[in-house]
């Protein structure tokens, strides 16, 4: 017995829109396909943090020449540049960027080595009025290099007869990660930029885990690291960076409630911790004055770097506990979305790339906020998307553009094939199935 089920839907009915959508998607250009794949859960927290940062910068930089409005306006211009970079990077297949890894890495490490013996506290280059820190370029390119090499090693090993199996061994992965992370790490430590050097540790650790290095190797490496830690602390670090050693010793003294000079070396960490702690639930208010209890208005927070390295104490003081937790929640949402994208990556390179970006962001966030609440020694490291950092803001948006590209290109983009709409004798007849 055959029963024919016929659904008659008028041509102009709203019920026809799924059919039209399928017909249109079949002839959609690759550009439109990519636009429709944008992950707005990544875009929303990114721009939310950027806007939050603009207001924080305006308040934090009010004691500097030109006032907070000039720095906020400059940050807006950097955001516009970063937005163009973000969109362009998102729409380009991330696998094409692996060819930029080697030249970017070489330039970044080379520039770090060029200013390694500089006496300046801020290790940066200024070209045509544009300042940037080469350590940030080195780590961004290092993530690209690691994700590319760790993916292609097994493929390369299968093409080399007899000795190709060596490239698939975990020891080779450990050696490559150690080499690519170790060279810039040592150079940046010699520069005295302990904050940027420490970022390499979580990035390298995440690369080891995500690339599939067995747990027994990681345990062995951790044991060796703990064994040589006293040697590094008492012998290597004092020779490599006297300033870094002094900051760590000051941090340990304050952690143990020892007597420190709060009018000297301990002035900054002491006042920063008080500014974070005294604000209460709601804070003193945006652009608050000394009469409202603002320590920043009394210049007790280092005002020369309050818009950059020490922007979190300004936010915590003015917005209180709720503002600080809102900021941390925004970062948490951004990183969770990135981890979700990593699980949807189409290949190991995409997964390693996204996890490396997450490690970099987490390291910056933990170090910056941690040094303001005495969980970490003072390090000159900006808060991603919040601090006034110029080229670093663009670099962060470039890295998030790579993450977006991993999401957009998680499935192949179909070639453009216009589909002609077939004519039917009865336009209202759109579904006819037979059930036996």
From TrEMBL:
It comes from Haloferula rosea. One of its GO terms (biological process) is regulation of cell shape. Pfam families: FTSW_RODA_SPOVE. Signal peptide: none annotated. It is a multi-pass membrane protein. The chain crosses the membrane at residues 38-57, 102-118, 130-150, 170-189, 196-215, 221-237, 325-345, 351-373, 385-408. GO terms for cellular component: cell division site; plasma membrane. Keywords: Cell shape, Membrane, Transmembrane, Transmembrane helix. It comes from the Bacteria. This is FtsW/RodA/SpoVE family cell cycle protein. One of its GO terms (molecular function) is lipid-linked peptidoglycan transporter activity. InterPro entries: FtsW/RodA. It is found in: Membrane.
């Amino acid at each position: 017995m055959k029963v024919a089920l016929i659904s008659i839907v008028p041509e102009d009915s709203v019920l026809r829109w799924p059919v039209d959508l399928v017909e249109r998607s079949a002839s959609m250009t690759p550009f439109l396909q990519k636009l429709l794949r944008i992950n707005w859960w990544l875009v929303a927290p990114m721009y939310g943090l950027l806007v939050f940062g603009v207001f924080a910068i305006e308040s934090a930089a009010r004691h500097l020449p030109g006032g907070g409005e000039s720095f906020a306006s400059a940050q807006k211009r950097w955001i516009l540049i970063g937005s163009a970079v973000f969109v362009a990077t998102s729409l380009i297949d991330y696998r094409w960027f692996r060819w930029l890894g080697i030249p970017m890495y070489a330039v970044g490490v080379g520039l770090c080595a060029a200013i390694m013996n500089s006496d300046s506290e801020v290790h940066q280059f200024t070209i045509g009025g544009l300042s940037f820190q080469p350590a940030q370029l080195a780590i961004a390119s290092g993530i690209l290099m690691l994700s590319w090499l760790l993916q292609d090693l097994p493929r390369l090993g299968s093409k080399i007869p007899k000795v190709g199996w060596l490239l698939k061994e975990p020891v080779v992965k450990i050696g490559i990660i150690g080499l690519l992370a170790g060279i810039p790490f040592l150079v940046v430590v010699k520069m005295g930029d302990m904050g940027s050097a420490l970022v390499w540790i979580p990035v390298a650790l995440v690369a080891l885990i995500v690339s599939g290095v067995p747990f027994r190797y990681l345990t062995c490496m951790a044991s060796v690291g703990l064994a040589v830690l006293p040697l590094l602390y008492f012998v290597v670090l004092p020779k490599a960076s006297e300033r870094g050693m002094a900051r760590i010793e000051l941090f340990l003294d304050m952690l143990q409630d020892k007597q420190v000079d709060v009018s000297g070396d301990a002035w900054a960490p002491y006042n920063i911790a008080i500014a974070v702690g005294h604000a209460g639930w709601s804070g003193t208010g945006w652009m608050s004055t000394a009469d409202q209890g603002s320590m920043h208005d009394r210049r007790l927070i280092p005002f020369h770097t309050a818009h950059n390295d020490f922007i979190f104490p300004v936010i915590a003081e003015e917005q209180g506990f709720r503002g600080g937790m809102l900021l941390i929640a925004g970062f948490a949402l951004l990183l969770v979305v990135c981890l979700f994208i990593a699980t949807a990556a189409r290949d190991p390179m995409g997964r390693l790339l996204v996890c490396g970006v997450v490690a970099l962001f987490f390291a910056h966030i933990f170090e910056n906020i941690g040094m303001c609440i005495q969980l970490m020694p003072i390090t000159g490291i900006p808060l991603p998307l919040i601090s006034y950092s110029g080229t670093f803001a663009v670099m962060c948006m470039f890295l998030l553009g790579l993450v977006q590209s991993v999401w957009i290109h998680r499935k192949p983009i179909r070639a453009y094939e216009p589909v002609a709409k077939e004519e039917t004798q009865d336009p209202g007849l759109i579904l006819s199935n037979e059930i036996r």
